Every structure is written in C-alpha cells, then in structure tokens.
Structures
1.
Amino acid sequence: MIYSAFFGLLWNALQDLTLKILIVASFVSIIIQVSTAHDDEERNIAWIDGFAIFVAVLVCSLVAAVNDYEKELQFKKLNSVADSRRQITVIRKGHIKSIHFSDLVVGDLVQIQEGMDIPADGFIIEASDVLTDESAMTGETDPVKKDSLEKCIRKRNIVIEEGSKNTSNAHTLPSPILLSGTKIMAGEGYFIIIVVGDDSCVGKIESLLREQEPEMTPLQKKLDSIANDIGKFGLISAIFIICVLLLRFTIDRAMEGLWDNSKHWEEILNFFIIGVDFSF
C-alpha cells in the first residue's frame, strides 16, 4: 500500500509535459549518438549525455514525489489525531458506551457535555442550562438556548400569557432540536439521535460540496494564469531558438555542400535539446 501510493505520486510527477519531452529526448540522444559513433571506444561513452538527461528527470521526479509523500503522511497523522477525538458517550440498549461519530445510529441516547460537537441531528430529552453555538449553520453568533420539548412549550405559553409574543426575538424561546455541525457552549443533559449520515444537516451540506467541483481562489487563478503565461513564453522561445539554429545550420550546409550523417544528425538533435532545456 505504501509503495503503491509512492509510485502513484512518482507517476503523477512524470506527467509534466516538459519532463516527457526530456525523457523522449534522452532516449533519442542515446540511440543517435550510439548508432553514429565512429568506433567501439566512442560508442562506450556515447550514451552518457542522454543518460544524464534521463537521470536529471528521474531525480526531479523523485524529489517531487518524496515531498508529496511526506506531506500526505503528515496529513494522515493530523487526521488520525483529529479522528481519535471524535468519540462520544452514548447509552445504547441500557449500556453506556464510548463510540466514534460514524458509529452513531438513530435511537442512540447521547450525553450532552460542554464543548462537544454535535455529530448528528437530535432531539433533547433532558437538559440543564444548555446553550449551543449555531454560527456554523446559521451564521448567527448569539448562543441559542436548548431544552426539552415540555419546557419549551411551557416557556412559550408563559410568553403568550404575558403578551410579549410580538416583542420577543428568536432566541427568547428555547428549542428542543440540536443540529449536527453545531457546538455545545454550556450545560448538560441527554438527547436522542433522530437523523444521521447524509440526511442530517451537516450531511446534506457535505453532499452538496461533494457534487460541486472545488473552485479556485483568486490567488490560485492568478498563479495559474502566470504559470500558463510562463509556459507559453518558454515554448515559443524554444521553438524560435530551434528554428534559428536550424536555419543557420541549413545555410551553412548549403554553402559548404557537405553532409556527415554521424556528425550533423547529432548536431540537429542538440538543437532540440537546447530548445527543450531553455523552455525548462
């Protein structure tokens, strides 16, 4: 598994267009220089230039793959630490258990603790001075009171009897509903899980996010545009340099009237390598 992940990152690093061109150029260089060597002694060292290009590409790809692999390992460690904290105390079938958020099912009775994150939508059964932070879901920073349904109804009737129904705000009356993705600020009690997974509030949001392609930030768009411009400039410059060198080479050969396969094909190949190196 480890090796497959690393080689996958190495393969991704080799997908760069410039590296592909350099790899092809290295093999072409080896083939031409070895095939056009004058004798065995020259043939024994003719492959060195092409092989050096291949080694340089391999080293660059390995460095990029190692860096990406180390980042992935660090990310996995951070995830494992965060995942170990996603434990919650529940009462299931009369037994108190500490389970992971992902193992919650509808009907579990969860103990409310100060500072805990609400893992699923729930309905309060018993509560004492419970306040929640629902800013992650609603954007409102004011704490929201939570209580059992019976106490919520009693409080509502008191407000109606006092005639303050039209003057009270949204946070005057407590609510028996706990939303997943919110946080307990204070209080204690119990609530029962009523919705889990993709049907919960936070689950619906995550489902929508999974369906949408992540948008690039303005900074990423700007950097991507600059990188494309630099790539285009390098490509155009490389083509221009190769064309100038080939034009000069053609004029020289026409004036001299000479052609040496072993020498001139290698010289033409060097023109392309110079152009590729410039673009790189």
Note: The first strand starts at residue 87 and ends at 92.
2.
Amino acid sequence: MCIRDRISSSTFLLEIDGCSPFILKAIRKRYRYKRLLQCQDILLRHNIPVSKIVYAEEDRRLFVWKRMHVICEEKIEGSTLLHVDLTHEIIKDMPHLFFSLHRIKSTLWGKLNEGGRSDSLFFYLNENIQQNLRKLYEYDQNFPFALVNSSVDYCKRFQREVEELNSFSLCHRDPSRANIILDKNKSLYLIYTCEMGYFPPFMDYYMAQIYLLEGNEAKMRLFEAAYMQGLTLEEKQEMKIAQPLFKLFVLTQLATRIPKVAHRHTAFSIVEKEIERILT
C-alpha cells in the first residue's frame, strides 16, 4: 500500500496492490465531515452518480499532527471538465445531471447541515446581494456606487414571488468545471458535494451557465435549450418570474470570488458589466 501522490493539502491518491485506486481525504472541521457523509448518502440513495465512500472515521489519529477526520472513497477514473473540451454532446448531457438532483425536494431551504430553514429566503438573497455589491465597489471603485443603493429597490420587486416559493430542490451550489468529472464511459459525476443544500433549482442553472460555460453564448444557448426541455410548465413559469434576482445573486457571488490577479481581470470585467446591465 502507498499514498502515491498529494492532490491537495489534505487530499491524497491511495493505491493498494490488487485494488482500484482510492481518494483519501483528511478533514479538519467536524461539520464538513458530517455534511460530506450526509450528501454522499442522499446522492447514493437516489442513484445519482457520485464516488462511493468505502471508509469513514471520525477519528483524528491518522493525521494526528493536523487532527483531521478521515474519508476514503473510490477514485473515479476520468478527468475533470477543466481538462476536457466541452463538446455539444457533453453540454447536452449536463442538465440531466442537475435534474437528478433537483427532483429531490424539501419544504425547507438551506444547507444540509443547517437542518432546514423556514425564515425568509428573500432576505437571505437580498442581504447577500447587497454585501457582495459593496465588496465589488471596494475592489473596483469605478463600479457605480449608485447601483449598490438602487439594487435594494430592484430586489424588492421580486420579494413576493420568492416568498411564495414553498418547494426547494437539492442543489450542488458550486458546479464549476473542477467539480464535475467525465469518466472513460463518457458519464458525468459530481464531486465536492459538501456545499449542497435545498434551494430553488434556478440557482444551479445560473451557476452552471456562468461557472461551467464561462459566458460562452453559443454554449449557453445549447445548455439552455437542453435544460428547458426537461422542465415542467410550472417550473418554467417559476423560473421566468424570479429569473433576474437569482441571476444577480449568482453574478454578485462570482464577482467576489474571482481572484484578484491580472489574468482574471477580463473575466471580472465581463461579470461586472453584466451586473451593471441588470441593474440599469
């Protein structure tokens, strides 16, 4: 047996003679350990493609110098979408990965480890949008501060529609190209599931368009067409009503995540301009 390679500061490739390779994760925070186990259990019970956990121990003896819990899971043989050309076939398959998640419902919203929230989803969205817009202005003071103020009234236009939502879907909440694997059989798998929670599915839709397809209009239209084919008439109507608010939420969230380094300035500028377009 050998730990052949370090994938990140707390994730390792584990190889055992005569066995398929495994991924060994060392997790410091107990709540993240519990949330990851909970997510994997839900996904496997609903036959959603995800790597299977073969060992989990709430025990800090293995990485005693870091005091971390341990999860060992099967390694999916394939590549993340970071290293794959997004062909039309792959883009058309993407919505089905999200549909399988979004059919899992709850009457309460929030992250899985929160046990479900019954307070105002609109307040959560509005507060996060305002905070992120202020961060955006701090980062780029050419961004019109008047839009930070006007966004309050803009968001209130959607308050009634959001507060009338009474069913929420299981969402990945971080569907970047680094968090989806294409295996050797051309099947898609979700990884990094510990941020999952129950939210309106429109959130994953806009995250997928912006995070996965990176603003490529042709690919976004292809994804949209495939996605819309899988929605019911009621789901399409709900999405149409609240669409601008959820898109603004995702864009402002992304704007604060883009690393402040030179080669990402173009991406930041594109996101910033789209936010301005929505608010003006």
Note: Residues 1-9 have pLDDT under 50 and may be disordered.
3.
Amino acid sequence: MDGRYITEMKKQARRFGVNLIPGSFAETCGEKVKNTCALIDRSGEVAGSYSKVHLMDAIGIRESDAAVPGDKLGVFDTDFGRIGLMVCFDLRFPEQPRSMVLQGADIIFCAASFPTGSPLPPRTDHWDLLVQSTALLNLTWTCAVNQFGSICGGTENPFGRSMVVDPWGIVTASALGRRDIVYATLDMQHQKEIRGLIIGENNIVSLLGVLCGILPGIGLTGLVLRVCESEMMAYPSRPAALSVVLASVVTYVFSLLIQLLLTRKVRGIDMVEALKSVE
C-alpha cells in the first residue's frame, strides 16, 4: 500500500478532502499478485483494502495463473456509512453482495474492467443486468465503475457504462460511451423506506410463523413427552433419549408447517391485491 499509485491517490484524497476508491491494482503476493482495491479516507490514509475473491477463470481467461484470490469480504465503515467493495468478476456471484449487505453494508461499490470484445465476446448487456440486479436484489445503492478505452496494449477494450443504481434497480446516473465523470446523490432515507416496505413485511410474516408454530409446539411437546413417559413405563428397556428426540422432531415439524401455512396465506392475500391493482 506504499507504491507510487496508492501514494499518489492518498495525496489526492487528502488534498480534496474526499473518500476515494481508486479502482484496483496488482498487489504483490509472493510470486503472484492480488487484484486489490483500496479505500482511502479524507485524511489520505488507507482505511481498508479488499482483494478480489472470485478470479476470472472463464471464457478462455485464467486469472489464477498470475493472481491469488482474497480470503475475506470487503466491508468497511466510513464517515458516510458502511460500504461493501467488489472487483469486476465478483459481480457475477450474488452471494457476495448479499453477504455484505447482511453485514450491514449501506452501499455497494464495484470496480471493473468489462471489455467490448477482442478477444472476449461483448458483455455490455451482462454488465447492465448484473449491476442493476445487484442493487435491486439487495435493495441497496450500487455504484459500479467500468474502465473505458484501449488497455493492455490494445488487447482489451473496456466499454465504460459506469453507473449508479438505486435500491429499486433504477439507474440514476450513468456514463456515456466515452471517458466521463458521473455525479449522483444517494438518498439513504429512500433506501430505508424501500427496505421497510419489502423486507419489513416479510420478516414480520416469518416471525409470526415461528411464534405461532413454536408456542403450540411447546404444548404438543408436553403431550408427546407424556406419551413417551407412558411408553417408557411400558417398555423400560427403550432409551430415554429416543423419546426426547422424538418430541423435538415433532415440535420442529409442527412449527415449520404452521409457519409455511401462515406465510403462504399472507403472501397469497398480498398477491391477490397486487393483481387487482394491476387490473
């Protein structure tokens, strides 16, 4: 983190008083490198770094020949919220942003180099869909930056299309097909309201299902244990542990059935109302 590139980026972050995520760079790791992305705070200090977990061993490319994968998620606290970092090919693995959001990430950032082709097939549609679906599926602001122009001696030509996507999956700002600067304002209250509408109601349904399943299940467990007690008196050689296991299984299954029935009913009502509103 003390090479020429990061040193210059630290100086610029301190000069302008901004948080900076200056793309990814090759960080030496033994005989290979890591594809690493740094987070630099307003004072010009490295507040955290993330090394790409999913190496691109696909479409005729073997990134692992030159790089080693990272071994942890990039979730960091900043003065504007908790953020999650990804790099390029990570975008194709939805478990990663979901895991970061579950760890409290308010914004997802992705630095990438998606090429137009030559030699890889065009993937502009992939880029648009992946970025927007990351935001929508996680109900989280997503900022994805893609390189533009000829790189690697002309062997790769990333197409840009950097964008900022809101929690509804709507592109609120994007770059044109050239070098560009993109500005966007992220309304975190908007994100909170959307998450409350989508996540809140479903969590309540799940909680009700658990409670409505467990409470009667406790009573059922008592009944089963009484039966088991009678069975043990009738059959003294039967292990007592078997009766406890049986009671636990009955309670668990009963709880799941009640939760499933309640959840399906509530969601069914919601679906009917939604269909009516469409008509």
Note: The first helix runs from residue 4 to 16.
